[in-house]
């Protein structure tokens, strides 16, 4: 990541590489979560993604409040990544529950 950032941005941006690496993990989790949300919407389970996003929003706000003062940019990236993991876990649990209710085995 440092090589890519130094190619396109001035050297002052290299300080953000660790936060970028942490946030990229969270972005991957959000991409998978979005796929699960689409699956929920396609099965007419529209309320679940809304509730999961609301829970993730509250968790992210609390974690930002706790992490940013001491860890600054790394804290923001870590808080958002942890919240993204929570979204993925809740979404996965919801889809698994709905699949089991339908009588399918995974």
Question: Nutshell version of this structure?
Answer:
This protein is mainly α and 106 residues long.
Structure notes:
This protein is mainly α and 106 residues long. It has 3 helices and no strands. Helix 2 (17-42) crosses helix 3 (47-101).
Index terms:
single chain; 106 residues; mainly alpha; 3 helices; 0% strand
- Structural class estimated from helices and strands: mainly alpha
Main sheet? none
Topology pattern, helix = H, strand = E: HHH
| Amount of beta strand | under 5%
Mean pLDDT: 95
Low-pLDDT runs = none
Spatial separation of the terminal alpha carbons: 37 Å
- Count every helix, treating DSSP H or I runs of 4 or more residues as helices: 3
Helix content: over 70%
Q: Mind telling me the C-alpha Rg?
A: 17 Å
Shape: elongated
Find the count of extended strands (DSSP E, 2+ residues).
0
Task: Give a topology summary.
Layout: H1 2-8, H2 17-42, H3 47-101
Helix pairs in contact: 2-3
């Amino acid at each position: 990541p440092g090589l890519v950032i130094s190619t396109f941005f001035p050297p002052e941006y290299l300080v953000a590489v660790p936060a970028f690496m942490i946030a990229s993990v969270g972005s991957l989790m959000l991409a998978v979560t979005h796929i699960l949300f689409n699956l929920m919407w396609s099965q007419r389970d529209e309320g679940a993604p809304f509730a999961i996003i609301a829970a993730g929003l509250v968790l992210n706000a609390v974690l930002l409040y706790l992490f940013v003062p001491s860890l600054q940019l790394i804290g923001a990236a870590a808080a958002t990544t942890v919240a993204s993991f929570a979204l993925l876990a809740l979404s996965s649990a919801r889809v698994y529950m709905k699949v089991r209710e339908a009588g399918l085995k995974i």
